[in-house]
Amino acid sequence: MNSMPLPATQRDCMSAATKRYKYLRRILKFDQMDFEFAFWQMLYLFIAPQKVYRNFHYRKQTKSQFARDDPAFLVLFAAWLCITSVGFAIVLKLGFLQFMNFLLYTVFVDCIIVGIIIATIFWFVLNRYFRQKTEVQDVEWGYCFDVHLNAFFPPLILLHFFQLFFYNGLINHEWFISRLLGNTFWLVAVLYYMYITFLGYSSLNILTKTHLIITPLPLVITFYIITLVSGFNITLALMYFYKNRVV
């Protein structure tokens, strides 16, 4: 007796579970990862992020999924978190235990937990309100997480790496130029995140009205101007927060 065919949603669920299993199974097999291509993606997220998403479409055509199937990008991302955390430890003069606490907080809270929350929110909202009514295919949760990592990488390098070179000598003061430089770093980082997130979802033909993702842009710029006028140095405030949470 032939078994009844599985519903489409159940087949999709099983397929997603299989993809996650294969992805996690490869996460410690460094010899099977394409680190050169992952590094290429990180570079192009700065200079031409739209080219990164062209590869996501190619993966969809060849492997029937938008989300990454190679954990090399995630491994390199974690490596950058470790490197930048060392920089923070030096700038903030953290002890070894404080550095380890900061590193664990950055990796598991700032990156993984926050990333899971943001990806889940986008996954739910996009599938519920932005997906075309005639589309059966939905937005993969793994793709939402990839979009978050893509969008988070340039801000990570700007705020947790390049900004550190200016902190003690220039940003860590009450001068106007100090908050101008520090707050501009944050403005550029937020704009990068919004733009790369917008590119990620606007490249999906199954979604509509993705331009709404960048509608908060005027509010971001207005807040930036207010911080300059009011004398609020965002970098100083966040540095105090970073240091207080590990002390």
UniProtKB/TrEMBL annotation:
InterPro entries on file: UNC-50
Primary location recorded for the protein, binned into one broad class: membrane
Ribonucleoprotein among keywords: no
Entry GO terms, CC: Golgi membrane
Keyword set includes Ribonucleoprotein: no
Residue ranges crossing the lipid bilayer per the database entry: 73-96, 102-126, 147-166, 186-207, 219-242
UniProt KW keywords: Membrane, Transmembrane, Transmembrane helix
Location relative to the cell: Membrane
Domain of life (superkingdom): Eukaryota
Signal peptide location: none
Mode of membrane association: Multi-pass membrane protein
UniProt family annotation: Belongs to the unc-50 family.
Name listed for the protein in its UniProt record: Unc-50-like protein
Organism listed in the record: Brassicogethes aeneus
Lineage: Eukaryota, Metazoa, Ecdysozoa, Arthropoda, Hexapoda
